[in-house]
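S.,

Sequence below, as promised.
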Amino acid sequence: MELDADCQYYVNVEKVFVFRGPLSPPTGCSVERHGKMLHMKWTVIPDYADKMFKINVALFNTNNFIQLDIGVAEVNQGACTIPLVGYGDEGVPIHVYLGIWDSFHDLLSDSVYCGIV
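The prediction came back faster than expected:
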């Protein structure tokens, strides 16, 4: 929670952690929206070259949690595209978070805020 200029509390979406864990989080993240598809990119991390390291995606708007996708791509791919399910209306802004999941040891990284689309 933070205070705005009018001393009103609000949630700073850039500081929210959807995932928490000991792994190093993804870096160089970006997201673009094309209709009902999201195109995400991140920097490939050599330590996560093994296929057991996957990307998790969390999406929400300010009213609802929209979508959670677990293990959508291997971290070593550096990019993925996912369909928006349900709340993919063009006029609805969506906040996007990425995190890393070690699918063998069931460990997570902290999430990273990628932006709003």
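The CA atoms of residues 53 and 102 lie 5 Å apart.

Coffee later?
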